[in-house]
Amino acid sequence: MEDHEILLKFQDPASRNLAFNQLVRKYQSKVYWHVRKMVIDHDDADDLTQDVFIKVWKHLENFRQDAQLFTWIYRIATNECLNFLSSKRRKFLLPLTDVGAELAAKIEADPALAGDEIELKLQQAILRLPDKQRLVFNLRYYDEMPYEQMAEVTGTSVGALKASYHHAVKKVEEYVTRHTAD
User: Fold this and answer.
1) Which of 78, 124, 157, 171 has the fewest beta carbons under 10 Å from its own?
2) pTM of the model as a whole
3) How buried is residue 7: exposed, middle or buried, by Cβ count under 10 Å (0-12/13-18/19+)?
4) In what residue span(s) does the RNA polymerase sigma-70 region domain sit (predicted)?
5) Residue 98 has pLDDT above 60, yes or no
6) Where are the alpha helices (H) located in the chain, listed in sequence order?
């Protein structure tokens, strides 16, 4: 079902729940993996994905449709991730590097990456990026999102996103090269 059809059904109180269920089915997996790449832990990603859709439910009738629905949902998910990571740092009084180390330990324990040393190194490198650079890297590398769409999701200019992605790629390459030679 197309987004505009979902939005039309959502406007009708009789079909609102059905429309929202269709929206969740359509975007839940994408949102979950977007969130999971940022927070790493499955349980945290599950909780945040649920929080994202609760916010979507609360604010969908005010959605102005000046952006794509998908982009709007991704922006909510992105903000939830960044707020979660920031809150985690404040809550545990952790510097940026300690949060990265904690997330890296979760990656190493992830059975999905067992035996894939290169993927593990890539994930460890990505975790060492600042949150916003990691976000840009994930959106571009994994989701293959165009810069214009990324600009809508992040509220950042295309030029700044390109620069951020370029810096992120360089840092990832350096890390992987340095740690694979060991």
Assistant:
1) 157
2) 0.81
3) middle
4) 23-90
5) no
6) 3-11, 16-39, 42-59, 69-91, 96-108, 117-127, 131-137, 147-154, 158-180
